[in-house]
Amino acid sequence: MVVEPTPLSANNPRIASLRRLSGRRKARLDAGRFVIEGPVPIGELLAAGAELDELYVDLDQWSSVDDRSPLREVVRDAHEAGVSVWGLTSSVFASVSDTNSPQGALASAVRSVSTIPELVAADGPVLVLVDLSDPGNAGTLVRAAEAAGCVGVIFAGSSTDAFGPKAVRAAAGSIIRLPIAESGDITEVIAELRSSGRVLVATVVDGGAAPETIDLSGSVAILIGSEAHGLPVEVVDQCSLSVTIPMKSAVESINAAVAGAVVLFECARQRRLSQ
To answer: Is the pLDDT of residue 148 over 90?
Structure first.
């Protein structure tokens, strides 16, 4: 058995640390760690080369699944990677879980971020999230950015934590494979993007060009704003191009993740055609 048979108590320091990492952005920043939950996302992070500290397993779920289950598989993979695996009672596991229906596996991992100069030095499109508050949308956009061939994602302004539990679940292995940078100063971000020679493209609700009508095949930075207010006017004013997704009149808007994915994959399509 690779899982420690004696469950950790609710008062164990490891459990207290997990609660802090799961619930507080400052705790994740201070510790340089984050939490990922679910056997499939954890397995994807392991495959992507994430540096896991420890894996925690709900012993009740562990005892009720067979050897071919994702839970058993991720425990084997973690053990082979030299990761310590600890057992928890269901009640203790639920106390550190961020989900309504815990999936029986939770891990802590090293929080790896790039600097903005490192990220923008790479050749390829960059996605910039400005004041994006919804972690599910943020994680989905990170995954879409990787799929569309972006070289990285910048979380700018007051955007949600890229390594918060919900964002990590949505991004899965992309949060490790794709460089992530963070800055509370959007002015600094724009200056770095411009210095790299990128064309800044603002996504706006109306008034922009349809994405297929503008050149997105070169070195571009796609900027996406908050769900409620979009990009700040002063940010749009500093962009060279604005893009709006054409929609039927009965549909007022689509969420940030969908809008961003449409623009990102149009960018990918144009880049393929230009090669």
So the answer is: yes
Do 225 and 235 meet the contact criterion of CB atoms below 8 Å apart?
yes
pTM of the model: 0.91
Instruction: For 235-275, write each residue's pLDDT tens digit.
Output: 999 999 999 998 877 666 788 999 999 999 999 999 999 88
**Across 165-170, average pLDDT:** 93
Q: 61 Cβ partners below 8 Å, 6+ apart? A: 71, 90, 102, 103, 104
Ordered domains of the chain (ranges, CATH): 4-110 (3.30.1330.30), 116-274 (3.40.1280.10)
> What is the b/e burial string over 53-71, where b = at least 16 CB atoms within 10 angstroms of the residue's CB?
ebbbbbbebbeeeeeeebb
